[in-house]
């Protein structure tokens, strides 16, 4: 999805108390105490890296105007057909685009176990104006590896504004990892470049999604999205329902501005069915 504008991210995380999850179990199972301590050290180091990543992400991103976006997973399944819509509504008094609603209508397909493609149609409803088509996009996700605990991939997007010569390209990395037994983290680091406009520039953006994954149906999460002078964070609910061989996925969240220059509040939602 285009990063021209306000984007979202979702986040799911376990307690970052590094000692508690491990010390009560140091003497359990077949592993000796020394091995248990080494495991705890590796997990602590991994979580420290994620905290450092979040801190470094804060000044990295740049501000753009509102765009509907999602947190992309690097996981790919061959033969999966996905149809859905992602939406956002800006509630920010004093903003030039206050009460703007943006929707992205999506159709995606898993071409192989390593590559998926998606065609998007982005529409916008500005205050006092009609609902209109804004942009077309083609997205590709290339999977480097995936297992039960982690996955990583490459994201590529080509966009073209409706009725205009302007367009853009977005590249970035996607990473997903299971933390402990019931927590996961999903990260996107993307860089966009617009073409055919007076303000052509590189626009890096970053997003995080932490979730408590004990339930397969409902998963509470925390989302963060960062842009220059525009940082937002808030809760989200991730839901998944199996209907025979199909899967219905629902997401809803609200993000609150973290700084005086940030947008006040943004509501976001996602509805997708996998066939």
Structural features, described:
The chain has 1 helix and 12 strands. It has 275 residues and is mainly beta. It has a single domain, classed as monomeric porin ompg (Porin, Beta Barrel), CATH 2.40.160. Strand 8 (202-212) and strand 9 form a beta hairpin. The relative contact order is 0.20.
Short note summarizing the structure:
This protein has one helix at residues 33-60; strands spanning 81-91, 101-110, 115-125, 132-146, 150-161, 167-179, 183-195, 202-212, 218-227, 230-243, 246-257, 265-274. The chain is mostly beta strands and 275 residues long.
Q: What is the CATH superfamily label?
A: monomeric porin ompg
Number of strands: 12
Roughly what percent helix? Answer: 10-25%
As residue ranges, the low-confidence spans are 2-31, 36-48, 50-64
Order of helices and strands: HEEEEEEEEEEEE
How much of the sequence is in beta strands? over 45%
Report Rg: 20 Å
CATH structural architecture: Beta Barrel
CATH class: Mainly Beta
Mean pLDDT: 80
Total count of helical runs of at least 4 residues: 1
Total of domains = 1
Shape descriptor reads globular
N→C terminal distance: 21 Å
Taking strands numbered 1, 2, ... along the chain, how are they ordered across the largest sheet?
1-2-3-4-5-6-7-8-9-10-11-12
CATH topology: Porin
Structural class by secondary-structure content: mainly beta
Most strands sheet: 12 strands, antiparallel, barrel
Name the quaternary structure.
Answer: single chain
């Amino acid at each position: 999805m285009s990063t021209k504008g306000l984007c979202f991210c979702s986040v799911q995380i376990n307690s970052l108390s590094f000692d508690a999850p491990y010390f009560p179990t140091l003497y359990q199972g077949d592993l000796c105490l020394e091995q248990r301590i080494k495991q705890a050290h590796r997990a602590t180091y991994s979580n420290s890296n994620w905290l450092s990543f979040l801190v470094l992400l804060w000044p990295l991103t740049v501000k753009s105007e509102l765009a509907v976006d999602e947190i992309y997973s690097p996981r790919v399944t061959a033969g999966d057909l996905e149809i859905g819509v992602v939406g956002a509504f800006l509630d920010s008094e004093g903003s030039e685009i206050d009460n703007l609603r943006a929707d992205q209508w999506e159709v995606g397909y898993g071409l192989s176990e390593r590559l998926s493609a998606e065609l998007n149609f982005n529409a916008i409803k500005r205050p006092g104006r009609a609902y209109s088509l804004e942009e077309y996009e083609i997205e590709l996700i290339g999977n480097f590896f995936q297992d039960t605990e982690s996955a990583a991939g490459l994201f590529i997007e080509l966009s073209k504004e409706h009725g205009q010569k302007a367009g853009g390209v977005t590249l970035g990395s996607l990473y997903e990892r299971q933390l402990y037994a019931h927590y996961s983290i999903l990260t996107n680091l993307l860089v966009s470049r617009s073409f055919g406009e007076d303000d052509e520039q590189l626009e890096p953006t970053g997003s995080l999604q932490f979730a408590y994954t004990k339930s397969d149906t409902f998963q509470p999460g925390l989302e963060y999205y960062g842009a220059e002078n525009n940082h937002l964070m808030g809760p989200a609910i991730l839901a998944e329902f199996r209907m025979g061989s199909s899967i219905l996925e629902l997401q809803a969240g609200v993000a609150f501005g973290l700084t005086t220059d940030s947008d006040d509040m943004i509501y976001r939602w996602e509805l997708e069915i996998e066939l």
